[in-house]
Amino acid sequence: MESKKQHERIIILGAGPTGLGAAMQLNKLGHDNWILFEKSSSVGGLASSVKDDKGFTWDLGGHVQFSHYKEFDELMDSILPNGWLFHKRSAWIWMRDRFVPYPFQYNFNYLQKEEAQLCFETIPSSNAIATNDSDTIDLPFDEWITNSFGNGIANSFMLPYNEKIWAYPLHTLSSQWIGDRVAKLTKEHFANDFLQNGNRDWGANKEFRFPLFGGTGAIWNAVSSLLPNEKINYNHEMISVNTTEQKVKFSNGHEEHYDKLITTIPLDILIYNSDLLELRTTAKRLKHSSTLIIGIGIKGKVPGNLQSKSWIYFPESNCPFYRVTVFSNYSPNNVPNGEYWSIMAEVSAPDSKQINSNSLIEEVLQGLIETKLLETKSVIVSKWSCKLDYGYPTPTIDRDECLNSIFPSLSKLNIFSRGRFGAWKYEVSNQDHSYMQGVECVNSLLNEFEETTLLYPDTVNRI
User: CA 342 to CA 155: how far, in whole Å?
Assistant: First the structure.
């Protein structure tokens, strides 16, 4: 006897990694009564890529492909079997007029002796480290940084850099999200040879892959090609959700009924555009930053000091960007034929209204010269920019309280919000996490499996 679940109408909003993950799993399990709606004319969402009119390819941010999941890895292997380039990460920090290897807390010996000595001397003893295990008090992020690393490391790098990337006061951020996303240390780490040689081999992304052609967007174009074309509807922007009638309305006038709704659009936008008036006050407490991405196409050969570098962090105030990716190093096909190279800078702000693209581009160009990544603007042959109203979901101190109020209310109404901004959990918002959130959501709806990525992000990040 067939169950009711086999006939339920499942609507997916958004064709980014999460929406495509849900669609792939529905297809795999043979549940045919589903349909996906995407507001733009292509798939990928924040993992899309763009080719500008000068022939340079750009991503919507500094994406690299690595994974915590065997299932995800197998999919990546299958979709671009001969279309990957594999890289060993070469991440650096530009500060004090020099390159310091990432992560800073393992390599501060690259600084001048006095500052490096202060960093070392102020590292807490091992029994004072804020390990952030499940039974640890959730300290404000700035306190967690100082307690974990000491004043030297905190003031030299950790505090100024994090203020730059998050664009919010660090005392308003939680530390419960951190898990293994920040390298921990104690003085016991620092034997004499470690102090001399540092350590660059930390983290899940120490090795990563990147498409040979088409940027990160090529990944999700390949995934979507595995799905029935008629199931994906482009240029459908959701404008309202009627939870009583279980109906979604789109800007082009189309309406669609659902039994279950998997939504990957920003959680606050979903609530503002629904009849869930009682959740709007809570949704307003959710914070996010906006991001401006600036791509600079350059004539000539990549300078020797950048030839092997993947990306660079910038904690100092002499430039507006927090990170620069040497994007042409990811694939030679990210630039047109001939002698060209490219870099991609990212600037963060608490509100998209604070981003003036034109003035910021000029500030970025000046910052590239101040930080010695460019000698002159005369070699620039292409300028590209993209403003993301939603860049990072901010892990504020009250974020989990908000989510613990919103998610059960939505679930009772057969609405399941997943993905980078659907779940609003920065700690599980990489491409692999996002894709698997879609897969696991479907497994939960159809087979009542537990959603590990959403419920236990710290466990996932330790795999």
Answer: 32
CA distance 142 to 158: 9
Element at 161 (helix H, strand E)? helix 159-166
pLDDT, tens digit (0-9, with 9 covering 90-100), for 224-256? 999 999 999 999 999 999 999 999 999 999 999
pTM higher than the cut 0.90: yes
Segment 3-29, tens digit of pLDDT: 567 789 999 999 999 999 999 999 999
d(CA 235, CA 238): 10
Residue with tokens 């390159």: 99
**Alpha-helical runs (H) found in 266-320:** 267-272, 280-283
Backbone angles phi, psi at 279, to 5 degrees: -100, -5
Strand order in the sheet with 260-263: 232-233, 34-37, 10-13, 260-263, 415-417
Cα–Cα separations (whole angstroms), residue 165 to 288, 346, 350, 361, 414: 11, 9, 10, 17, 35
The one-letter amino acid code at 294 reads: I
